[in-house]
């Protein structure tokens, strides 16, 4: 039995446990019990037809990060025999890329997909739903979220926005971005104009950088015309697609501000509550699969993309140690300052910090020893 057969069977089995409820305005009054085969088992989903809209923050051309929404929509359709149809819209097509959360909150769309650090102006604690500088890697974040109490904390946080959240993918460790000028020392950051969102942007501000936030489709022209001197996005595969290597020669690493940035699916609370329980389970199953699939896809695509960039003349550079050290100091101070004045933030931060300490002790043992030896030696 393959993955899709297994999850489909699980959904159908859940249907067999009882009849589905109606979906309010989304569904009409259609009956919601499964038909049965000769053996008496569930065979066909006869639940209500539901049509939703999902607004993404990402461009359609970014097939991996935008593709997570399409992946979820496809899987939900499969798991409900086409009864639950979710139509995806790329950033800017239906609503502005940086207004996804607020539109899900009000019910303008039933669902959204974005990085929660885009919205820290609404609540700074939203950064923990995505990533913070020198924070958790993708594996460590999933450990905290699924088994370390992180999901309960995030659900409580998003309840203030009339939203229920589901993990929606992870890019893995990111690159440090594209620079039109070299950064050989900490002083070279002073006055630099850079596209960088989230808490990483706040850290860069403290280090003398003039930070700005652009959606993906606006970064290239801003970099090309000199409106910004540097920009970060994700990593080699997406960055190559966006063409940054054509307008900036230096590619810096590591992206210390995004060691494991998570994406999130936002669902309007009322719309979710109106769904039959089996359709709710379909969202949960599909989101979990999308979460795993995105990271695997990036890990597969990035190596070849990096080599192509290097073959085209990109100059790969590591951030100087003094930049990394100063960034870490600033990050720690910003986190502690916010925690001191915001009780909700402090509760989440203390849980996150404890998970990070535990993970670093473990990963710093076997994982680090293996990486130090094997990664340097090659195949």
Short description:
By secondary structure, this protein is an alpha/beta fold.
Describe the structure.
With 379 residues, the chain is of the alpha/beta class. The protein is built from 13 helices and 13 strands. It has helices at 3-16, 67-79, 100-106, 127-130, 138-147, 150-159, 198-206, 216-224, 236-242, 269-273, 277-311, 321-341, 343-377, and strands at residues 35-36, 42-44, 50-56, 84-89, 111-114, 163-170, 177-179, 193-195, 210-212, 230-231, 250-253, 262-268, 315-318. The strands form three sheets. It has a six-stranded mixed beta sheet with strand order 9-8-10-7-11-13, covered by helices on one side. The two termini are 34 Å apart.
The biggest sheet amounts to: 6 strands, mixed
Poorly predicted ranges (pLDDT <50, ≥5 residues)? 6-38
Spatial order of the strands in the main sheet?
9-8-10-7-11-13
How far the N terminus sits from the C terminus, by CA atoms, comes to 34 Å
How would you state the average pLDDT, rounded?
90
| Count of helical stretches | 13
Q: State which percent range the strand residues make up.
A: 5-15%
Percentage of residues in helical conformation: 40-55%
Broad structural category: alpha/beta
* Rg computed from alpha carbons, rounded to a whole number of angstroms: 22 Å
- Write down how many β-strands occur, each being a DSSP E stretch of 2 or more residues: 13
């Amino acid at each position: 039995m393959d993955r899709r057969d297994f999850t489909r069977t699980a959904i159908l089995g859940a249907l067999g446990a009882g009849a589905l409820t109606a979906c309010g305005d989304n569904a009409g009054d259609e009956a919601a019990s499964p038909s049965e085969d000769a053996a008496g088992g569930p065979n066909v989903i006869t639940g209500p037809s539901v049509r939703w809209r999902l607004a993404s923050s990402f461009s359609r051309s970014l097939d991996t990060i935008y593709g997570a929404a399409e992946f979820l929509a496809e899987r939900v359709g499969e798991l409900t025999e086409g009864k639950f149809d979710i139509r995806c819209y790329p950033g800017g097509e239906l609503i502005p890329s940086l207004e996804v959360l607020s539109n899900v909150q009000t019910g303008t769309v039933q669902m959204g997909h974005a990085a929660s650090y885009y919205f820290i102006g609404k609540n700074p604690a939203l950064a923990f739903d995505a990533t913070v500088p020198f924070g958790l890697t993708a594996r460590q974040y999933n450990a905290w979220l699924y088994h370390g109490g992180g999901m309960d904390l995030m659900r409580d946080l998003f309840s203030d926005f009339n939203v229920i959240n589901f993990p929606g993918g992870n890019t893995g460790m990111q690159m440090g971005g594209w620079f039109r000028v070299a950064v050989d020392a900490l002083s070279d950051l002073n006055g630099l104009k850079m596209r960088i969102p989230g808490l990483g942007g706040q850290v860069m501000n403290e280090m003398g950088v003039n930070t700005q936030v652009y959606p993906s489709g606006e970064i290239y022209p801003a970099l090309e015309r000199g409106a910004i001197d540097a920009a970060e996005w994700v990593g080699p595969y997406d960055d190559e697609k966006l063409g940054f290597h054509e307008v900036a020669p230096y590619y810096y690493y590591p992206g210390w501000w995004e060691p494991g940035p998570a994406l999130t699916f936002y669902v309007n609370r009322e719309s979710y509550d109106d769904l039959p329980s089996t359709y709710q389970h379909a969202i949960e199953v599909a989101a979990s699969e999308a979460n795993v699939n995105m990271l695997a896809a990036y890990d597969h695509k990035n190596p070849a993309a990096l080599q192509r960039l290097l073959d085209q003349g990109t100059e790969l550079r590591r951030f100087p140690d003094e930049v990394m050290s100063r960034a870490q100091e600033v990050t720690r101070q910003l986190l502690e300052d916010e925690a001191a004045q915001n009780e909700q933030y402090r509760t989440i931060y203390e849980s996150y910090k404890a998970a990070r300490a535990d993970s670093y002790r473990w990963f710093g043992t076997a994982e680090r020893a293996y990486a130090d030896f094997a990664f340097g030696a090659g195949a």
